[in-house]
Amino acid sequence: MIEYIIAGLTNVLNPFTLFLMVAGVLVGILMGSIPGMTATMTVAVLLSFTFTMDPGNGMMLLLGIYGGAVYSGSIPAILIRTPGTPSAAATIFDGYPLSQKGEAGRAIRISTVASFIGGVISVIGLMFFSPLIADAALQFRSPEFFALALFGLTIIASVSGDSLPKGMISGLLGMLVATVGIDPLTGFQRFTFGVPELLTGVQFIAVMIGLFGIAEGMKAYSSGIDDEGKKVDQDIDGILPSLSDLKAIGPVSTASGIAGVLIGSIPGAGGDIAAFITYNEATRWIKDAVPSFGEGNVRGIAAAESGNNASTGGALIPTLTLGIPGDSVSAILIGALMVHDVQPGPALYQEETTLLYTIFVGFLLIYVLILVFGLLGAHYWVRLINIRESLLWPAILVLCVIGAVALRGNLFDAWVMLGAGALGYVLRLRGYPLAPMVLGLILAPIAETNLRRSLSLSGGSFDIFYTSPIALVIILLSVATIAVPAVRSLSSRSSA
């Protein structure tokens, strides 16, 4: 193995390869920080540039874009409460409150270090444990995917704020919106109202941009634009996080990184599910957090960012070992390899070992570049908050529209975004949390499709869920996640 690692290191230290990695990371950071410009879209657009390169150089460019975009989605989440990518939605909970306290630079530095830790853990898992993890991920069928989605939906209780009923209503509203379109099993139209654009469903990213970006803009304008009175002085001193912050985020970043690799290795799970699950587990296991989660706790940022960045390497595990894409970006990466007559799968480990270790070593170095550029760039990103609101918000709203339309080149998605923005604004006025709605949008299609498919396979019997050990364990964890806080609440009331 050592000789292959050395060969991979020799390849990535080639000046042209290094240039491609740096370019990929910078492009990924830039595009990922624009709401709606996802990693998938950016990798797909730039895929054609790799056709004339050798496979190693092409993968370095695309992986640089992939890692950079997943990382930088946290930047607008922290600064303007609008995630750049879906996987950064959980970072809003504690990142934006820190920004409101004048500590946006601290939040971005924490996000950068946690992303680096998660990314490094994912590469280690990819390099040393990929065959084992891939075999375990292959055990996931419809019952297991339903159980995983159900477990994800239990997070609604953790992100509902002070009112669980309002959180549940918000989550159910998101699940309702997710049912719009063609029924995945029967082909019937649901809630399309004769609108052809709704046949493919409501575009999730457009809704998310509206809920956070447009709604935040509407809130800013409704309360009055004040270029001076609302400005929060930001502390932008220093490049590295403080020693106390590093001690605080180290354990949670490591644990979330390991969990993110495991979740990311499940085909179709993705970084957004990984981020929400790791954030939720941090809130459950870390007691007496000061400040509380949701009020600017650095460990909340670390859990979400380490989890979603670890999912990148996790998604490559089934991609490289089995030829099965772990997420939408890895599906594009499979196409990039096949253009060069390289077939991902078990044979890759025997026939293209040098290329494989070039990918391993290169992806590790890409996260080092992300760490360097993220820490050095934190000063410049934070200064965006000091731009006059009368100039900043129009620019943000224009970027939101561009991001929504660019998804499919469809103007209808901009109207969806505006409608979601109006809904998000009303919900915020009434004290309804928006995070449960996002969870419902993400997880409801996965839960519904796999529940119905499982029942179809079992002839309508629910035995299929408890005869699967993996599904049974996850379902029991879901029940415990809901039951334990409820029992504690009842006990505290009775003792009072």
UniProtKB/TrEMBL annotation:
The keyword Disulfide bond does not apply. InterPro entries: DUF112_TM. The chain crosses the membrane at residues 18-47, 59-80, 107-133, 145-161, 167-186, 198-215, 355-378, 390-411, 431-451, 463-487. Residues 18-439 form the DUF112 domain. Pfam families: TctA. Keywords: Membrane, Transmembrane, Transmembrane helix. This is DUF112 domain-containing protein. It comes from Halogeometricum pallidum JCM 14848. The lineage of its organism: Archaea, Methanobacteriati, Methanobacteriota, Stenosarchaea group, Halobacteria.
